[in-house]
Design a protein that fits this description.
Elements (H helix, E strand, L loop, with lengths): L8 H8 L26 H9 L24 E5 L5 H12 L2 E4 H9 L3 H27 L4 E6 L5 H10 L5 E5 L2 H8 L4 H17 L3 E4 L25 H15 L33 E6 L9 H5 L4 E6 L13 H17 L4 E5 L8 H13 L4 E5 L4 H9 L5 E7 L7 H13 L3 E7 L4 H14 L7 E6 L4 H5 L5 E3 L2 H5 L3 H7 L8 H10 L7 E6 L7 H12 L4 E6 L6 H5 L4 E6 L13 E2 L1 H6 L4 E5 L11 H6 L9 E5 L2 H12 L11 E5 L3 H12 L4 E5 L3 H16 L17 E5 L15 E4 L27 E5 L8 H9 L4 E4 L1 H17 L5 H11 L9 H10 L5
Parallel strand pairs: 1-3, 1-4, 2-3, 4-5, 6-7, 6-13, 7-8, 8-9, 9-10, 10-11, 11-12, 14-15, 14-16, 17-19, 20-21, 20-23, 21-22, 23-24, 24-25
Antiparallel strand pairs: 16-18, 18-19
Helix pairs in contact: 2-5, 3-9, 4-5, 5-6, 9-11, 20-29, 24-25, 24-28, 28-29, 29-30
The chain binds 1,3,4-trihydroxy-5-OXO-cyclohexanecarboxylic acid (DQA).
The site of 1,3,4-trihydroxy-5-OXO-cyclohexanecarboxylic acid (DQA) has 11 residues, from β14 and α28.
Length: 879
Amino acid sequence: MASVAVATKRTFSTMMGDMPQTQAWSPQEPRPTRPRASTHAPDSAISSAMSTPRTTPTPMPLLAEWRRIFEPNSSVVLVGIRGTGKSTLAIMASMACQRRVVDVEQQFQEATGFSTAKYRKQFGASNHNLRQEELLRITLQTHDKGAIIVCNGGSLEKSGQALLQEFAQSHPVIHIMRDIGSVHGYLKVLQLSKLQDIVAFTAPIFRRCSNYEFYNISETKAAVSVVPANQPSVPAFLTLKRAERTFLKFLSMITSPTDEQGARRGVTANFEPAFPLSEVPVELRKYTCAVQVPLADLTEDVDIEELEFGCDAFEVVVEPVEMDAHSQHLPSERAEHISSAMSRVRRSTIVPVIYHVTPAKDQSHAVSYFEHVRHGLRIAPDFATVDLSSDEEFVREMTASRGSTKLIGHLHAPLDWYDPFWMEKYDTAMRLGCNVVRFTRPAQFQDDNAAIQTFRNKIREKADTIPLICFNTGRAGRRSACFNQVLTSVIPESVREGPTFAARVQGNPETSWLTVKEATHILYASFTYDPMRFYIIGASAGYSLSPAMHNAAYKACGMPHNFTTYQTSTLNTLQELVQDTDFGGTAVSQPFKLEVISLVHSMSRHARAIGAVNTLIPVRHLNKDGSIPTDLELFQERNQAGPIKALYGDNTDWIGIKSCIRRGLSPANAVRPTTCGLVVGSGGMGRAAVYAMLQVGVKNIVIFNRTYANAEKLVAHFGRLVSSSSSTGLLPLASQGPRPTFRVIESREDAWPTDLRPPTIVLSCIPTHPVGDSPEPSFTLPTQWMHSPTGGVVIELAYRTLNTPLMKQIREETSGAWVCLDGLDLLPEQGFAQFEMFTGKRAPRRIMREEVLRSWTDERGQSDPAMVQTRLDAIDQEP
Ligand SMILES: O=C1C[C@@](O)(C(=O)O)C[C@@H](O)[C@@H]1O
């Protein structure tokens, strides 16, 4: 296999720098073949580059010089040895953020007519290196913007490294890694021990010329939760779904600096989940907790969702290790260990990740501490801590090179809270550019908890502030930790009860003594928060699984709330609920999703665009001018009873539908300008379905509805939306490419429009059971509409009946390329968003998914234990 040339000793030596300094072109070398227009330099760039004498490599910059701030649309380089999955990741990224893939190896082949290995054999190593450097330079120059550039180690002779280092001054250059077993499995030809040598040798080189690193975890288990039990086989692409999600999340993090409110708008926006709390920076919310988990506990089989349960952030605690006295760099295995653990956390949680290195105990650990913190910024965590007792220069360096990571200035000291030391340190942290401050102090007595409030009040009086995390540690400090408002450190339930707790406290006096359940309990026991009443309101809400799903979540989180069914034939009775000072909010079911709009005082921009509401929350405080406060303020007043001044309407159906589309759509069906979606039905759910399609970037949407006039109304509504200026900023990529178009198909007998591709996303938004006098619709798709050669995703949005004629049809009559999801997949997804709006907290996802499956029965009250068990088994650590 020619492509394994990187793995030869020859390349090693040249990487070390034994490359001749001046070399003429070999006269035998064939003229480069004419490059293809899409991925090549214009002729002038090639010829000027070819005639340019080799320049002296740019001196290698210190890591600290990287600012990690990039212009929008800057190209991203993926670099690493073969077999780490760079090309696959590049394709995923190119689909999600509409960029082209440029492979440096392929460029070489096209320009010279030879593979790199053959070229080396024929013209010698020096010519080969020279040509590679030349082509790498051209590629980086030509594809400075809008590309994902794949670069194998073969391009990295010493001068190539310098080129990449220079590029990394203004572009993300990501070192891609993967476990050695998987790389070996992919390359096949190499002995494992040889490969180990190569990795050990090359990793520090790749690290030197990249400003980020991503550990690509090999997925062995498919995300089968999206495939209903009776589908015979799991499509292979599903195994890659998690890798895709994790990488896109990473990419979004590094390419999207936060806006003024601290929220992030990623380049992969149409691919990202749209849960409401993601829009509100965690450090601005009240009474949030971060679970602290030592790196050593993040073993491969650890259940991250379990550890994170009920928390608002996940903190990885890294202990600096002894470093070789002569080395200035973190040992490679250590760096890799940290990167892989962080990748595992990122892949299994939706909450922000904090990277915390425990401050150096003495001067001899200082270098190790610095190197661990520097390494952390390469992994792009949401937050990283920096010890405020370190040298100011170091803190400044970290704030300058933090990129999109927010820095928490951290300090643990035994000084009294009245001591001016703390205020000075707070001011220093602000001056040096920290985004958040975290002060902790070991408490001896309960009185220390009162003193801390005085300090917090002093901070509050300042004109300029950044969020403050501030609490006493140790057993005596627990009370102050409970009432700290921002990211209180907690430990997992299992650790608090476990045998290692005492040793941990001894080893690290900063260890928290609190669990999230205790912290939650105190808020209610102290009357800071109140038990609330939630409902689902609908004409036939009796069958709804929402009460079971939400109540299970409240119970698991230790919230004393209650969710009940409110079945009614008229919305007039809503007043009764709203007069109750404990009213927390209601889910709105059919047939009220449109009608309820007349009763709300304000709506989210999404609900307004959709023209349907499925979630109502009470507003207890209005702005001075009588308007409704911002989302952040609305979240701050959750879980607190009192008279209600207004009702706010939102829609979580589209959020759930978007999540399900993301889950089920294969890379082969990634949304392109020609992608076509079909929506069946035109009620409230149909509107949410059209909106979800627009949000994932579908530009051709076809509606089929029994009553043609209603379908036309829906089309008119969305036609107005996409042509109005309000769609800019609301729909991702709205300003790019053609404007979305909508069509109505009148009858099942009609042919699929000839100018449109067959649909690859089908959303059935009609009831699956009889409603009133109407029999169940028993809808199936006309076969002439089902010709997508790559299949697609079909989602039956209702859940009362599961094995519907449509689901049976897809399973029995189509190829395995179609993935089916149903209402039991959707209900929890839209419910997570509802839980966030009702409580201001992230939803306990697994609990809610499991409860929905366990409580489901068909119209005759029968459950299906086999189906439930298969689907329960399939719920993996899916954030
Ligand atoms: O449509 C639905 C389903 C639902 O009504 C239920 O529990 O069945 C709950 C609603 O929030 C959602 O919009």
